[in-house]
User: Fold these one by one.
Assistant:
Number 1:
Amino acid sequence: MRDGVGSGAPAGGPGREAPLTLVDVVIFAVRDERLHVLLVRRAEAPFAGRWALPGGFVDVARDADLEAAARRKLEEKTGVHSPYLEQLGSFGDARRDPRGWSATHVYFALLASAAVALQAGANAEEARWFAIAGERVREPLAFDHGRIVAAAVARLRAKTEYTALPVHLVPGEFTLAELQRVHEVILERKLDKSAFRTRALAADFLEATGRTRAGPNRPARLYRLKRGREVVFFPRTFYPKAD
Amino acid sequence: MRDGVGSGAPAGGPGREAPLTLVDVVIFAVRDERLHVLLVRRAEAPFAGRWALPGGFVDVARDADLEAAARRKLEEKTGVHSPYLEQLGSFGDARRDPRGWSATHVYFALLASAAVALQAGANAEEARWFAIAGERVREPLAFDHGRIVAAAVARLRAKTEYTALPVHLVPGEFTLAELQRVHEVILERKLDKSAFRTRALAADFLEATGRTRAGPNRPARLYRLKRGREVVFFPRTFYPKAD
DNA sequence: CGAATAGTGTCTATCAGACACTATTCG
DNA sequence: CGAATAGTGTCTGATAGACACTATTCG
């Protein structure tokens, strides 16, 4: 039945409505020991005045692919060019957008908070960081963006359990204690220092820079992310092997 | 910049092209100790004659949401109404479809092979099961469907390592040995019987039916999937806890 | 020296993995 | 009884988790 003449003519075909195609980005950063997402206030209908995820229509002329579209939205808001970016999934139905049947492709990005300097939108849109409380933001959001944020937070938490993803939320040089703190902030629970360090170092995604961070105490070694180790799973026994 | 008047008018707006919106389904089943996917032969251009994933345009009038669209495609091909269905992700760019910029929302489904009786398509399309070799199918597929199949296989394998997903590939009543065999077929490696059984039973997603499967040997206990335990993660220590 | 945080060592319970062993049926 | 597969028991090595201990700096 695939695109049979009578049943599925392409968009723009005779008398057939096509879904709207959008891209949205859930941009995470840790600030003041709290997980935050970046939201923009909508200037126009629908949902004028409400806060929403940075995003919008895919531009067939400018965007080579979905990820490029997501990257463009991200750059417009933050000026950041190549953060960690991962596809979360897509959300589409008849009712989420009053303008019509719409589907949005959602990505999530992890920013090292230090790198963030919000860009004034071309049309002077407001952009602001919102703290995550539980799995959501306190504000009611435009469209189904509240649900999307919750899904992104759930995904980030799940992955934090068994991967080193949170390194991307930390500036280029950092101490193990700082990295641990970010993990704790995301998971909303304390972690054991000794176990954390063993695990992080065993996963072989960090390298010491040789420098240290001074303080009113013993100085801490500084680390950076090893090249080529942007996505690391913690080593753990997965499954009964035989053969 | 979201849907600013001059930069992102909705589809159908004045002189602006909108992406095509499709849904495709990767339908898995295990037959003859091999993982298979269901493909259909395209009757029309583009890629007429090539094998492709069941799928096609989202029908704004009939499909309430993306998952419903995927379910519709699945039912048209297999007659199966409620198998395990999960979103894989979306794939969209300017070149994957010669008809224009297109984005497809991909789902994957797990069928218990016994339940499968292929439906003749309305326009007598052919449908056939193809064995997975490595991460792909031997045939060259239409569009970027080869890549999509590979991504689906990778996801299924990854999840088989730490969840009980493969129960959905096994008929309603089954022995532990049969379930183990399916895991082995997906992972393409032998598993240790003792460890597999301990793990499966400890995860508490199976219940004995009380019946047994006879054979030229000691009869095996039959199990079924416990209600409400459709998605089960194997218990394993994830992370250093403290507090 | 004391405060403060960095970093290490030790013990224990759990579990994957390997593998051998026992159990129960059919012919 | 022997073949064949179901199902269990035992040992070992790895590691999460708890927690105490040592190390190094500043003021």
Number 2:
Amino acid sequence: MTAHFQTLEIESSWGNIRVEFLEGKPVRCSLPFLSSQPEQPFSIASKGRDATSVFILNMLAGRAAKVPEIGPVNGTEFQKKIWRAIAGIPAGQTRTYGELAEAIGSPGAVRAVGSACGRNPLPLFIPCHRVVAANGGPGGFSAGLPWKDYLLRLERKH
DNA sequence: ATCTAACAAGTGG
DNA sequence: CCACTTGTTAGAT
């Protein structure tokens, strides 16, 4: 069976953001890996007006954005639970890996939470960047810490 | 402040 | 099934 999926590519000053859709819903989002924060300020060249483009644009501009409905993500029940819990974190707030582990009923499974976060198929849509280490450290980010730092900086600022 | 051990779950052999 | 890796953490040195 050929599941026809669309691909949306958004050009930004930090590289191309690619979103894959399955049946009209985003199922995968890939950000360019950044080992260090680019000199250039972040900007988006895309003019897309679809819900996804607008969402990403608002998100990366520091504006509150309504998260579009996401498609069926590929993952274990555990990971889905974690991603769902992460999706419930309000903008501007952060949670530690430990708190998140406890929230899903598995206190102590902090490393599993970290792993699940790292495998988050939809960064931006699932705000895994709001999950930080208990000691105040930045933790990590699949696409590179600059993204996380940038996003947290946008939301933390009030 | 740096280093080690333990923990839970995923992935690969 | 066993071992290694992972966006951690708490405790000891």
